[in-house]
């Protein structure tokens, strides 16, 4: 069943399945944007479905502060400037009570500026440059830690150093999309410090669709490993271009791929990426996580999403809603300053773990893990304490 336009854009602003007991007073209105169209839509649709599920579950539990919750989401078309305009509308014209962040770093930064101007709390789920999160009432569910360009990269290279054939040469090809570029430059420096020889460094503009020349340059460089700074479907397009010239990278790491399309592509086999949650123990050991996985699987299949699994994007999105709910309940108020004060002082339990917001830029620990496509599924392989049962790094 394919996503209809009505399913995609229609019911986002409506109150979802409110039980009788929750219908007391006016709804609490939570406003946000998502990239429902444009180059980021393949992943943003996952965030839309997660938000719908969470609000529905929340209202079944009685809502917030004895009132039902209504989510108003607008399409920012994958454009950061439009996200800024729409968040202005949400605050000034729609007069929402609370904000939830959009998808992707550029849009989140735009929303953050609006939140700061109006002293609103902004919980967000996929912001990739912690040093730019300078507003003191923003709270990240993307648990990169405050120094991800070093910590995430070192985690990847720690794992590869223990493999049966550690890479000695590396090609780094990356989008100029802000958070991707930031992480790729960090990976480039970490690789140099660890003694890997860089045989190629290339950049492309976000929105690029012609990956043939890049694939040819990678093949000519013949690296042991390719770091691919991709977002959404870019990684798939690059792998497809490599296939056309009969080239398969020995090791390929992807920054933020669209997980479903990468998983289903034959060229995506043994792809590496980062994650905070996958559909296997120990992540699914908690009842909340297991129930969310079950519901998301069913709803994603019914909606015709290309990936029906709960992974890094869905988990970050669900965690963001858990953070916002915890803040409102902890403060027992819709006052943004009280919510922010509670979140800064308390650790919040989420499906990815317990998060804290008392570090630089309100970031806590780096909880990122490394996953790999194995046997038609994404499986965590590092750290080994979080690895899928029986899983370990596979090399070509």
From TrEMBL:
* Residues annotated as domain Leucine-binding protein: 27-376
The residues forming the signal peptide are 1-22
Q: What is this protein called?
A: Amino acid ABC transporter substrate-binding protein
SUPFAM superfamilies xref list: Periplasmic binding protein-like I
Task: List UniProt keywords, sorted A-Z.
Answer: Amino-acid transport, Signal, Transport
Q: Example GO biological process term?
A: amino acid transport
Q: Which InterPro entries match?
A: BCAA_transport (IPR051010), Leu-bd (IPR028081), Leu_Ile_Val-bd (IPR000709), Peripla_BP_I (IPR028082), TAT_signal (IPR006311)
Q: What family is it from?
A: Belongs to the leucine-binding protein family.
Q: Does the keyword Metal-binding apply?
A: no
CDD domains xref list: PBP1_ABC_ligand_binding-like
């Amino acid at each position: 069943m394919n996503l209809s336009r009505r399913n995609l854009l229609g019911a986002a602003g409506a109150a979802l399945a409110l039980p009788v007991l929750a219908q007391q007073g006016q709804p609490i209105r939570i406003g946000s944007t998502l990239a429902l169209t444009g180059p980021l839509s393949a992943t943003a649709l996952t965030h839309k479905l997660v938000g719908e599920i969470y609000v529905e579950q929340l209202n079944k539990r009685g809502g917030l502060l004895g009132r039902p919750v209504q989510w108003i989401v607008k399409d920012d078309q994958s454009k950061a400037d439009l996200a800024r305009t729409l968040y202005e509308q949400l605050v000034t014209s729609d007069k929402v009570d609370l904000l939830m962040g959009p998808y992707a770093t550029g849009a989140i930064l735009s929303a953050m500026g609006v939140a700061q101007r109006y002293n609103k709390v902004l919980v967000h789920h996929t912001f990739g440059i912690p040093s730019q999160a300078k507003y003191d009432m923003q709270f990240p569910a993307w648990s990169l830690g405050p120094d991800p360009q070093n910590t995430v990269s070192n985690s990847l290279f720690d794992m590869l150093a223990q493999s049966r054939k550690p890479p000695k040469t590396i090609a780094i090809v990356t989008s100029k999309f802000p958070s991707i570029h930031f992480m790729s430059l960090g990976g480039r420096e970490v690789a140099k410090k660890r003694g890997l020889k860089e045989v190629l460094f290339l950049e492309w503009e976000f929105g690029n669709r012609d990956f043939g020349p890049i694939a040819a340059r990678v093949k000519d460089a013949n690296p042991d490993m390719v770091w691919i700074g991709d977002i959404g479907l870019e990684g798939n397009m690059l792998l497809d271009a490599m296939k056309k010239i009969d080239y398969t990278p020995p090791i390929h790491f992807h920054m933020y791929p669209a997980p479903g399309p990468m998983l289903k592509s034959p060229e995506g086999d043994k792809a590496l990426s980062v994650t905070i949650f996958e559909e296997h123990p120990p992540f699914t050991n908690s009842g909340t996580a297991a129930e969310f996985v079950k519901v998301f699987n069913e709803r994603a299949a019914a909606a015709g999403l290309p990936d029906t699994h709960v992974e890094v994007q869905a988990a970050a999105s669900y965690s963001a809603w858990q953070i916002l709910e915890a803040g409102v309940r902890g403060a027992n108020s819709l006052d943004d300053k009280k919510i922010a004060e509670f979140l800064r002082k308390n650790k919040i339990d989420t499906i990815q773990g317990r998060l804290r917001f008392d570090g630089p830029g309100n970031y806590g620990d780096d909880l990122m893990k490394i996953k790999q496509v194995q046997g038609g599924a994404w499986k965590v392989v590092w750290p080994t304490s979080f690895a899928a049962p029986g899983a370990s790094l596979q090399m070509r």
